[in-house]
Amino acid sequence: MGLKIGGQVERINGKELSYKDFVDNYLVNNQPVVLTGLMDDWRACKDWGFQDGKPNLHFFSTHFGNSKVQVAECGKREFTDQKRVEMSVSNFIDHWLAMSTKDSTDLSNCQENDESLLYLKDWHFVKEYPEYVAYTTPLLFRDDWLNLYLNSYHMHTDPGTYQETNEISCSDYRFVYMGAKGTWTPLHADVFRSYSWSANVCGKKQWHFLSPSQCHLVFDRNLKNSVYNIFDDVSDVKFPGFKKAIWMECTQDRNEIIFVPSGWYHQVQNMEDTVSINHNWFNAQNLSYVWKLLLKDYNEAKEYIEDIRDICEDFESLCQRNLAANTGMNFSDFFSFMTRVALANIIQLYLNFKNTEKQLSSLSPSTQHLILNLLSIKKVSLSMKLVDTESSCSILDVREVLKDPLFLELCRDMEITYQMIYEHWTKCWDPIEHSRINFDELELVDSNLCKMCRSEHLIRLIDNVFSHFGVDSSIENSVLVSQLDELEVFCNDSVV
Ligand SMILES: O=C(O)CCC(=O)C(=O)O
Q: Which residues form the JmjC domain (predicted)?
């Protein structure tokens, strides 16, 4: 029996979609969508493919051949993913070209299909080639705290976790994927339960999606392992819910971008030779998904080593170390992330109030957005406060953060982002204006909040800022909060 398909992913013209409609209909409702018309000016679309839509493999060998990349062997499973090997882009392309010239009888000797199929994944292309501007991120996906943060900071602060390999693999979440017809990605939900977008520069992909409210159906009885390949003959005994799952399907063509919502399980097949660009990201709308995953993974990490608790010198630190290694961040990384992002939003709010805001009753869209951001951080901090422990926190000296040139970079990138979204970016960023900010006047940093080490400090900081600007509970309770509450309903649907 095949998969039950409940519907097709909606397809709309991205040029005719306002930012607000994208947020309300897709980010907040957490629904997938295919967007057309957003890749018209991309250099990648000119350089990386031919008129007929096939990838220009020689271009990659010639210009980026020396890059070392991760390549998945589509026919070999390793735990929950495909086996990965490292190779140069030119070796990868040589293999691809050699396979494409083999005739079909040779290929049938390669164990039917997947054995020889190599799929280049997670290539940190933007990080590696910043000068070669292959594309610009569409405005709809710009409010990306993850990559904005990683432009300035590393996610890991623990030197034990922060190793050479992590340096590359966690440096950012902006990737290029390349694979011949038949390459594929097993069923999964995205890292950190982030949103993602994936743009087809060449080729065609088929996607199958399962909404968070149905994800338990692809898990085994213990809710530990999920189905690897939805086209396998999946055992009813092992995965009793699988046949009941109702999937959404989508064929994504060249020059189309698919938005993948938080926590949706999905499997992807390349139906033609394909090159795609792919970002993972999160922001105010899905921050609580990230926290829920972190909490779930933390509880699992703890349970896993429970039997050595008594002989462990610092059990909690070990749990946090394992969490960082397995999930990509731990509680203190997340706390540092939220604190710096909150401070950058506060600075921007300060500048908005100083320069443009006249009345609290009619705040500009960009100021409303900043308030929503802070409310979302406060909400997650309230939940985090329930599990704060000594080693889950990091100590951030707020005055040091504010002086740090890396923090100024984050402020600049955030300011540019919101200006682009709301004002179509007219003015240049003014470092002098930032250097003139009088933090003492702002009374942000009351003496008790100089050192931030617990969620309750972050909550107090945000409350202080709101009361400083007169953002009272009537504004907090306005439409901004109902948006967050609505989101919470979707987030709670996600049980695994
Ligand atoms: O394109 C692929 O093979 C996988 C992409 C993916 O899973 C994602 O964007 O989340």
A: 126-298
Calculate how far, in angstroms, residue 256's C-alpha sits from the geometric centre of ligand 1.
14
Mutate to test the pocket of ligand 1, among 278, 280, 282, 286 (most ligand atoms within 8 A of CB): 278
Alpha carbons 323 and 317: distance in angstroms, whole number = 10
Residues 168 and 83 in one domain: yes
- Domain that residue 150 falls in: 4-281
pLDDT digits (tens, 9 = 90+) for 308-341: 999 998 899 999 999 999 999 999 999 999 999 9
What DSSP element (H or E) covers 485?
Answer: helix 479-493
Tokens 């396998």, located at residue = 232
Task: Provide the sign of the torsion angle of the four alpha carbons 384, 387, 388, 390, taken in this order.
Answer: negative
Same domain, yes or no: 155 and 174: yes
Same structural domain for residues 341 and 436? yes
Give pLDDT tens digits for 106-141: 555 544 456 689 999 999 999 999 999 999 999 999
Residue whose CB lies within 8 A of the most ligand 1 atoms, among 188, 276, 279, for a mutation test = 276
Question: What are 226-271's pLDDT values in tens digits?
Answer: 999 999 999 999 999 999 999 999 999 999 999 999 999 999 999 9
Q: Quick one: pLDDT band at residue 474, thresholds 50, 70, 90?
A: low
- From 230, 251, 281, the end of a domain falls on 281
Same domain for 251 and 334: no
Q: Whose CA is nearest to atom 3 of ligand 1?
A: 185
Task: Give φ, ψ of 69 to 5 degrees.
Answer: -135, 165
Mean pLDDT along residues 372-397: 85
Question: How far is Cα 43 from Cα 125, in angstroms, rounded to an integer?
Answer: 14
